[in-house]
Amino acid sequence: MTLGEIIRRQREVAELSMRQLATMVGISNPYLSQIERGLRAPSDRVLQAIAASLRTTADALVEQATAVGDRPPPVLDAIAADPNLTARQRQALGEVYTAMAETTIARRGRRTANGKRPGD
After folding, report:
1. Same domain for 9 and 49?
2. 12 and 59 in one domain?
3. 23-73 pLDDT, tens per residue?
């Protein structure tokens, strides 16, 4: 899960609209939307302000994104558990999925869950 997704979920738990949080943080609604969708990374100042508005810390938000992201995606678990696939088929599907996901992440300029860009 990306940092933006964590921020969105925390905002929803706090029952804040995107516009309300953006106003509290002092940023535009479109900028917050881009952060939540993973299209832009917030500056340290903005991340601190988002965290304060959500009554948490920036470190806690980053830690949640990292902790969730360390687990393999559910699709890889499903592939690994499918009894209708051979071991080689499971391996091939996992490799194809991972390659496609990394390509999409790189194209969007996002970082992977461990904070690195694909290929680092």
Report:
1. yes
2. yes
3. 999 999 999 999 998 888 898 899 999 999 999 998 888 888 776 555 667
Contact 64, 9 (CB under 8 A): no
Tokens of 118: 């694909």
Burial bucket for residue 13 (CB in 10 Å: 0-12, 13-18, 19+) = exposed
Q: What is the rounded CA–CA span in Å between residue 103 and residue 109?
A: 10
Residue 73, CB-side half-sphere exposure with 13 Å CA sphere? 14
Q: Are residues 19 and 57 in the same domain?
A: yes
Domain that holds residue 96: 74-108
Question: pTM for the full model?
Answer: 0.58
